Give the backbone structure.
Amino acid sequence: MAMNEGGAPGGTSYEDVPEDEVLSCGRELAQVWEQAETGEPDPHTAGCPHCAEALRALRSLEAVVARARDDEPQERPWDTAALAGRVMDVVRLELRPGRTLPLGEADEDAWIVEAAAARTFRAAVESLPGVRAGSCRIEADPQDTGRPASAPPVGWLPRGPARVRIEVQVGLSWNLQLVADEVRARIVAAADRELGMRVAAVDVVIADLLDDAGNAGNAGNAENAENAENADTEGRQG
Amino acid sequence: MTEQQAPRALADVVGTAVLATPGVAFLRPGLAELLRSSVGLGAGRGTSGAAGASGVRVERRKGAQGLDIEVYVVLSRGHRALDVTRAVRSAVVAALEESTPGSTPRSASARVKVTVTGVV
């Protein structure tokens, strides 16, 4: 089963947010960047002036990052390659931030973009051995009735606890109910310790099974695959 | 400070305070806007329009006394996002009070919204 169907980096999909930047040739800027980073030849990009200009801008940005990396004092124990990668991640988040989610209590005015929160949750889930995180979607909890009457701006969730839905691929050695519980626990812990976000419920979808080599799709027999589909579990907090 | 200059100068005051807050890596750089202009997409296209290139936005509240301040920050890893946003708000309020010694503090009627746009 394919993951990340939404096409967003890291698998977050955003149906109700503004469209991405589209070049004059019809291609999305983020798509052109991602294609270029794979290093695979692309006949369209090779002959398209709009894509070429977009890639020139990307290379310029990478040069800025490289210069900043060179200027970094050597005594600081940075993993500079990882830092440069994270800076590029920030650029991607600007292009596809997703919706904006509340942090803290109802009377506060603190927020975080969905892509950053989803990335935190995916990293927490992938700290489990043999587990890969896929699409992560964060919604307002429909059962929360304590929201203010006024509707939030478009793209902003109402202040209140959130509901997280995440797809995972798991190794064959996992008991599916157990791994769903572990995934849920990691997300709740990350939401509290790393973000300060209130989470009311976590839906875990076992999207695929991984074989010992970490390959998805043909890892199990038909019975296992059926069990995986049926392991869409829900957990409500407190 | 004239009324026209005030929001821009205040944005500088706010920005300096935000950047000095532990856990803040940098203000939202607005790189998407820069790239958008460099590839000829036109300003504002593809965004909600609510978020400009700057990481700090200061506006006088229409029809009332007070300021609406929006801060967009990228955080450093290892810091709890909510704690940093609270520290940012406190730093902004303190900076506004310091910027108006001997008069009614601007912070008394300022609304400060803090949004985390990334973590590095």
